[in-house]
Design goal:
There is one protein chain. With 221 residues, the chain is of the alpha/beta class. The protein has a single domain, classed as TIM Barrel (Alpha-Beta Barrel), CATH 3.20.20. A 9-stranded mixed sheet has the order 3-1-2-4-5-6-7-8-9. The longest helix is centred in the C-terminal third of the chain and has 13 residues. The model has no long low-confidence stretch (mean pLDDT 95).
Length: 221
């Protein structure tokens, strides 16, 4: 079977494909195509994409690629849900890289990253106690991160902040890749988080969700 045939017959369950500004990570502000896969084994208390837990449409990877190409942009983010919950996500990631896109993957960190294409920039969450899913962190994944990847902490309160800071030190995470601190939207005051980071001189990048500042909590942005 040729590569073209494989992409035409291999399917994914897709929640949505849309074009927007990247709202987070070091790519913030870049026009990006988002491919959101359906399904997630986690249930974080602050999740803002619960609509992607189910539903969606089953389509071929070739059809996904055609939709992505229609937006004429270099940047593609594969997200969820938890995209790696579908094994064919790995095929999609490689196909996007082979086509020349700059690809990022947003993942919970609970599922194995060992087989993700090395060209993909992995944005891996480390789940905090406040998320309710800290027990799902797969610490083996740290060995699969490189300087092109990023670790993200979504912080629910000051206890999460302190926990994340101690973890950064104990696991020497800054020697692995960039670290992102993000306050839970509407729950943690961004000014307070900024003050904590500056007081403790943490070597992290604070980020706000640009898309929510621009469009609010609308799905598809």
């Amino acid at each position: 079977m040729s590569i073209v045939q494989a992409l035409e017959t291999t399917t994914l369950r897709i929640s949505e494909i849309f074009f927007s500004l990247q709202g987070e990570t070091s790519r913030v502000g870049l026009p990006t195509v988002f491919v959101r896969l359906t399904g997630c084994p986690l249930r974080c208390g602050y999740c803002d994409t619960a609509y992607a837990f189910s539903g969606g449409e089953t389509i071929s990877i070739a059809a996904v690629m055609n939709q992505v190409a229609g937006y004429s942009t270099r940047y593609v983010t594969v997200t969820g849900g938890e995209p790696l919950a579908q094994k064919n996500c790995l095929i999609l990631l490689t196909a996007l890289c082979d086509t020349g896109y700059s690809v990022s993957l947003e993942t919970s960190g609970a599922l194995d990253l060992a087989h993700v294409d090395k060209r993909v920039s992995k944005i891996m969450d480390i789940k905090t106690p406040g998320s309710g899913e800290a027990g799902r962190n797969n610490w083996d994944n740290l060995a699969h991160l490189t300087p092109q990847d990023e670790i993200k902490f979504v912080l629910c309160d000051e206890a999460d902040y302190q926990w994340a800071g101690e973890l950064i030190q104990s696991k020497r995470l800054t020697q692995t890749c960039s670290i992102l601190f993000s306050p839970v939207y509407g729950k943690v005051n961004p000014t307070q988080l900024a003050d904590w980071i500056l007081h403790d001189r943490l070597p992290v990048r604070m980020q706000l969700q640009l898309h929510k500042l621009v469009w609010g909590e609308q799905p598809g942005h």
